[in-house]
Amino acid sequence: MIDIPALYEFTYEEDRAIRRNLPQTSTFCYESVWGGKSHWYIKQPKIDSLIEQNVDLRTAFQLAFKKPMSETLLEKQKHHYKIYEFLGDSPNLGDLTDNPWRFPYDIDFTFMLTQKLAKRTLPKVQGKPTSTEYYQSYDPVTGVYDNIIARVDFDLTYDVLGFITKKEALLKFYKSDGSVDHTRFKDIGRSYDAIYDAEYRIKEGVLRRQSIVDNLQLPILGVLQAVFPDTPMTAVVQLGRDFLDRYEREFDLFIKASKKDIIEMITSAPDTWLEAPFPPAGPGVTVRQYLIFELSISY
């Protein structure tokens, strides 16, 4: 089998010239990754001798491969997908490492890489996952992630009753210039059947609302520390616990039955620190507004 390099640009005429001069017994295929570029695989036991014997076929190959690559392809050659740098040289990988500019659709970085990537989960919004990033390394001392390799962006779809119907999870890869390829991705999510997945769809709502409540605790503690800087940490923590305990019943009903009484309670709560600014949510947003937004889901 002859493997023609992937970074050559074939014109229509060159494509036809090669095909026209190949024996009918040959089996070949090519995949188009970028416009005008073909990645060829030609399976023919005596392809080398055929090229030597057939002047027209030899000429077609020479014309196709002796011309310089276009500036577009030369530029693409510089910016390969970084994930290929971690594949190693295992023979089990086949031809996966031959073309690091090809979208790594068949690469599973959970077990195919020479090292485990560091996973960073970005904050949820209203209990829904947003993105997960994968880096080459993470320094637990400094808390710094280095060299991002891939990311998964999530988008959840719900029906009119508030039950999940689809979880879109788009796996995207970064290139060697540091840019992420948003034009090519792999959806590793799934859709949910109204009948066969009914149990999970119900549980998903409960888990989502539980996640909302759980993720409110640290932001509240951070605001209390800023509002009461001279107060001992134990006392600050107790203030947060008192607030949550005061509305324990309403929070519980929100989680288990999606009741919205908790929103009314927070709206009228007398705690002055609720009017403190909450920068992570945006300029001018108060803690009260942030809490109400997070809890204001329609299901």
Give a structural overview.
The protein has 299 residues and is of the alpha+beta class. The protein has 3 domains: 2-77, Alpha-Beta Plaits (2-Layer Sandwich); 79-192, no CATH class; 200-295, no CATH class. 36% of the residues lie in helices and 19% in strands. The chain contains 9 helices and 9 strands. The protein has helices at 12-21, 47-53, 55-66, 71-78, 198-227, 233-246, 248-257, 261-268, 287-295; strands at 2-4, 27-32, 38-43, 118-121, 131-139, 144-158, 164-173, 186-187, 190-191. The strands form 2 sheets. Strands 4, 5, 6, 7, 8 and 9 form a 6-stranded antiparallel beta sheet that branches. Strands 1-3-2 form a 3-stranded antiparallel beta sheet, with no helix packed on it. A hairpin with a 5-residue loop joins strand 6 and strand 7. Helix 1 (12-21) packs antiparallel against helix 3 (55-66) and helix 2 (47-53) crosses helix 3 (55-66). It is elongated, with a radius of gyration of 28 Å. The termini are far apart.
